[in-house]
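Standup notes
- HV: blocked on the assembly model, inputs below
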Amino acid sequence: MSTVDFDAELVKAGATAHTRLARLRYLIWRNPLGAAGAAIMGLFVFAAVFANVLTSYDPLSTNAALSLAPPSSAHWLGTDPFGRDVYARIIYGARISLAVGIGATVLGSGFGIIFGLASGYLGGWVDLIVQRVMDILQALPLLVLALVMAAALGPSLQNTIIAISIPLIPYVARVIRSNTLALRELPFVEAAKAVGMSEARIAVRHILPNTLAPLIVLATAQLGSTILTEAALSFLGLGVPEPYPSWGRMLSQSAAEYVRTAPWLVVFPGIAISLAVFGTNLLGDALRDILDPRQRS
Amino acid sequence: MGAYLARRFSLMLLTLFGISIIIFLMLRVMPGNIVDILYDAAGYVNPREKAKIEAELGLDKPIVVQYATWIGGLAQGDLGYSYVSERPALEEIVPRIPITAKLAGLALCFSVLIGVPLGVISAVRQNSGMDYVLRVLSLSGLSMPSFWLGLLILMAFVAYFDVIPIYTAPPETWWGELLLLSVPAAAVGFRSSALMLRLTRSSMLEVLRQDYIRTARAKGASERSVNYHHALRNAILPVVTVIGIEAAFLMGGLIVTETVFNVPGVARYLVTALTQRDYPIVQNLVMFVATIVVLINFAVDMLYAVLDPRIKYSES
């Protein structure tokens, strides 16, 4: 709810950090795990943006002669049954994972914000109906709802993003609603009303910015779970379709049958998924410690 | 309490009713029904024949009628017929439930037996090296997709024992079944144990800051007694309340893990039915899952009142 004044925090802690670099160094020193998470995420964003520089192989072109080649100096992480370079597919797969992860988180948070604000600020029957709908959405396990949505919409990149975003809505809506309920009673809202501001403008301009901190914490945590859900959906064949190089789908092709014959197909995409989610989780935990004053010890 | 129970119960029915509508609508807006898919595979569509099959399956009726037929049947224990096997849905679903129930039970045992003690250790030694290791371990446990963990376990079995512990035939003895199911249960349970560890840890830390803990220390109770007698008994309450979340979390893990280990349970059946557009199976299975989750949450609420005498559900 409250914003964090880093300068004040730093002075209080007796730090003499005046340059930007020194402040950054201080934050890293205070939150080594969070910094590690940010570094891991940075790595994946870098891989996604510069995929074409990081590998000269095409992640899509097949080559029957190279089918199931083990890791070598030419193909660092080996090749899949179609002779495609696994390293290239993992690097390009970062684009898909991040696109689905960020897309679903933004979409889910967007709808969550709208429902949460409307529910908390307007109250009354709007609140009642929105809360019941959120109850219904939350009664289903995340993966079950995403699975049914994905199957209903049909396999495509956009539909996967939509299917994963829907189960996130109630979590965001609840956080925004409870914050809005508290903020609504504060004097600055009354002041805004007194000067004749419209309800919608108060909600968007005055309430929403004050819910930013919990929203950032929640969104970071959800980024990890969207990446995992995408992997699970694609693994089950109901997520991102071919020819996109999705990490989850790479594992579904290589599932139990390659455990014996081509372990590199099983190990590397899994490491990519776990590492990316690990990074978001570390970052999310650190952000919660920094932004959520109640958790601070 | 009675009035609260009644209100809570009717709310539960309302939620289930809402879920049934949402699931039904979602399945009906799917592009292409089972008949289209069957004919797609055949390559040739005779419109008359197609219409005949659609009529047989009741797909030509208005959506409201289809919905009423389903719910009406559900109330009488008639779940309709599977489009794929053409057997009653009830006969398809019920035999698969015990397998998933056993797997889920085993996984829950794993997660509690590993997660709770480690969570306590992590909290009691907050900010120690041990705490750091456990926190990083639990976080990495939460970061690993459970199907990948399952595949890694399969790989380890292949490398060290040269067997693949996947479900090929129903085991003959209960001991064989236990062994066979405990491998996928460990894969699912490890992930939920990470969640359990984090919950136990934060709940323990909260309790250890309370005044009564200081009082216990002041009166000279041993560290052991303070941690286990005074703190853990209070810290375990919030952990119990998240069993509902845990169950939903477990369900997600079961879906992928049953697929990896080829376990013929309901969770894998849901995926199969979804890919085959077997509506009667999907809608009934989803309703089944939702009912379980909603019932568990209801039971947990009631259990909470029993376990914590400070909580009284008032009439208001």
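- HV (later): unblocked. The mean pLDDT of chain A is 84. The CA atoms of residues 28 and 217 of chain A lie 18 Å apart.
- Next: hand off to the docking folks.
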